[in-house]
Amino acid sequence: MPKYIIHSCNDRQWYVDQYLVPSMLKQGIAKDDILVFQDKEGIGPLKHFLQYMEQIQDLPEAAWHLQDDVIICKDFKERTEALDKGIVCGFCDSYDTDKAIAYNRELAIGETKPEFEWYSLQCIRVPSEIVKGFLYWYNNISVNDGELIRRYIQYNKHEDTLLRMYIRGYYPDYPVINLKPNLVDHIDYLLGGSVVNNQRGIKDVRSLFFEDTDLVQELEEKIRDSREETN
């Protein structure tokens, strides 16, 4: 069975504990297969990303990575267990469509190459060999691969972009699936908006291909009711 890695910050741990993990357990995912990495010390997204990547690099198989601001689809367990090869991108938003338009090409869906891989850190399957290679590249080579990479490292974020840049540069033919329907929806707007990019003009960056919208409505009502009870 695959492992599921949840990347969590302190402000969102309540959601992970009360909603996200229980929704995974309800589908039958074993508790031992869910690994929550909370940035308790507040070291920031990139440093925290590197910290837990070091801890999971020796997993015997690929792991599914989830952010702390997503809701999973109804058949999440079944679909993630069936998708057992290569990189799988389980989330797509309008940022990828904007990129496709900018480069005058169609949005890639289905089997593709890293050149057309979605920015999918909200939900992505990453094989262990990619994790190990990325860590070696970051620690030994990345600072020599361009000024933009050095700026990302200085900003202590953009871990999704750095991972994608590594894959495109060193594994240009690696098998990638851009999955439709999406496995998760991005519901940061229910949790106070973006923690990292709080300057972002568009606060609601939703999945383009998430079909279980009734789950999002139910979650919105649960969170609203819980806040009303607290107040």
Describe this structure in words.
With 231 residues, the protein is an alpha/beta fold. 41% of the residues lie in helices and 16% in strands. The protein has eight helices and nine strands. The strands form two sheets. The protein has a seven-stranded mixed sheet, with helices on both faces. Strands 4-9 form a two-stranded antiparallel sheet. α1 links the parallel β1 (3-9) and β2. The termini are far apart. Residues 197-203 have low confidence and may be disordered.
In short:
The chain is α/β, with parallel strands linked by helices and 231 residues long. It has eight helices and nine strands.
- Strands across the major sheet, in which order? 2-1-3-7-5-8-6
- Determine the mean pLDDT: 92
Strand residue content = 15-25%
Could you give the count of β-strands? Answer: 9
Radius of gyration: 17 Å
Q: H/E order of the elements?
A: EHEHEEHEHEEHHHEEH
Q: Major sheet, described briefly?
A: 7 strands, mixed
How many H/I helices? Answer: 8
Low-pLDDT ranges: 197-203
Principal-axes shape call: globular
Protein structure class:
alpha/beta
Distance between the terminal alpha carbons, to the nearest Å? Answer: 41 Å
Helical content band: 40-55%
